[in-house]
Amino acid sequence: MTPLRAPKGMNDILPAESGAWHHVESIFRSTMGLYGYREVRTPYLETTPLFVRAIGEVTDVVEKEMYSFVHRDDALTLRPEGTAGVARAYIEHRVHNSEPVSRWFYLGPMFRAERPQRGRYRQFYQAGAELFGDPGPHCDAEMIESLVRFLGNLGISDSEVVINSIGGSGARKKYRDALTDFLEPKKHLLSEESQRRLVTNPLRILDSKSPRDEEAVKGAPVILDVLDADDTAHFEGLRRSLDALRMPYRVDPHLVRGLDYYTRTLFEIKGGADKLGAGNTLVGGGRYDNMIAELGGPSVPAIGFAAGVERLLIARSAAEEAPIVSVFVASMGDSAVSCAMTVAQRLRDMSLPCEVDSRGGSLKGQLRRANALGARFAVIVGEAEIASGSVQVKDLAAHSQESVAVDKVAEYLKGKA
Ligand code: AMP
């Protein structure tokens, strides 16, 4: 029989790893809380046209990577990213009527049919945020600052902020023409896919990882040279604001990012290069001032980012393992088991995590289990202890032992364990 396996590129997160996930998630929640963000949860499935309209038809995600299917009469897609669904929810619930500025974050799985490799999976998790209602550029800088703080709180100290502006639709049109004029004579040097994109979406060629394309775009015009006056003022405002916040950054005029919805500010944060190599983009984000209106909502500016949780876990320095329980209750002999269970019940009443090995077995074996669980204390309940009304409490770190009355164990350990 063929062994059953998880789908390719989709991973189990076993209990041994989930503590690290909780750590990253809780640091994300607390950091975003410092900036007034609240959590939004949207469905994992959305209608397919939402992604096609929001992300753009000629993008890798929409052309090749979406898990789409028709169920009864509905065309549905497993969300490949978070922004489209969050924007849809913002519009559907007419949130702009009740609050001028909304700061929302989300955490959850995304699905893209990509070729799996280290740091790139088909089901992966993003920690992201969207800020609606502020045209920037100061909030753009603040968002970048919140991310650097988040990464710092995770122990990722080598983070590098890269920024660019792709302007509004006017500048984009001008740039598209300039780029097409530059690349047209070099068309034969481009990869097959980029030759096609020269007609459909030339900006995407700057994103290509093909060495042929990378060579061909060298010396290409940069979008910063064709920005409108307002776009330039926005970009300069962002730079001034980052300087005021003492945030170092690098301008990469070829940064375009893979999704079509961006306007003006674009940014990426790289980090953990020693562990991730070239695929070390931890966070990607940008402004999307037209999306809400294009999806049928009001004209509300917006900016957002998404960080890949798996990549953060690889990039961060490993934190110390938290103990699974703080107390282990060992029971010696059949009649001791129910007393051990009662002791454990009292410990849990006091909110002390504990485990009882109701299988019994040798004391040595049970203490080995206590150590494996990271317990600081072991309570030893044997027949002799029951007869005397007291149990042995062993401090596994200090290697000391004390006799404590059965009904006082929980109080004794509270505050110590
Ligand atoms: P994007 O939504 O493509 O802008 O990606 C934002 C961030 O999500 C990236 O910088 C990565 O950290 C992460 N990410 C994107 N795609 C994947 C993937 N297939 N597997 C793991 N992480 C991903």
First-last Cα distance: 48 Å
CATH architecture classification name of the largest domain: 2-Layer Sandwich
Q: Uncertain regions: pLDDT < 50 for 5+ in a row?
A: none
Beta-strand share of residues: 15-25%
Q: In CATH's first tier, which class of the largest domain applies?
A: Alpha Beta
Overall helicity: 25-40%
- Give the strand order of the largest sheet, numbering strands 1, 2, ... along the chain: 1-5-6-11-10-9-7-8
Instruction: Give the CATH superfamily of the largest domain.
Output: Bira Bifunctional Protein, Domain 2
Which radius of gyration do the C-alpha atoms yield?
A: 28 Å
Instruction: Give the total of domains.
Output: 2
Shape: elongated
Hetero groups in this structure are: adenosine monophosphate
CATH topology of the largest domain: BirA Bifunctional Protein, domain 2
Average of pLDDT: 94
3D structure, described in words:
It is a single chain. The chain has helices at 15-34, 48-55, 60-65, 83-92, 138-153, 169-183, 192-200, 211-216, 229-244, 273-276, 291-294, 309-315, 334-349, 363-372, 383-388, 409-413; strands at residues 38-39, 45-47, 67-71, 74-78, 102-111, 123-132, 160-165, 250-251, 263-270, 281-287, 302-308, 327-332, 354-356, 377-382, 390-395, 400-405. It has 417 residues and is α+β, with helices and mostly antiparallel strands. It folds into 2 domains: 15-168 and 228-315, BirA Bifunctional Protein, domain 2 (2-Layer Sandwich); 327-416, Rossmann fold (3-Layer(aba) Sandwich), CATH 3.40.50.800. The strands form 3 sheets. It has an 8-stranded mixed sheet with strand order 1-5-6-11-10-9-7-8. It has a 5-stranded mixed sheet with strand order 13-12-14-15-16, with helices on both faces. A 3-stranded antiparallel sheet has the order 2-4-3. The two termini are 48 Å apart. The structure holds adenosine monophosphate. Adenosine monophosphate (AMP) binds at residues 81, 112, 114, 119-121, 124, 126, 258, 281-284, 306-308, 310-311.
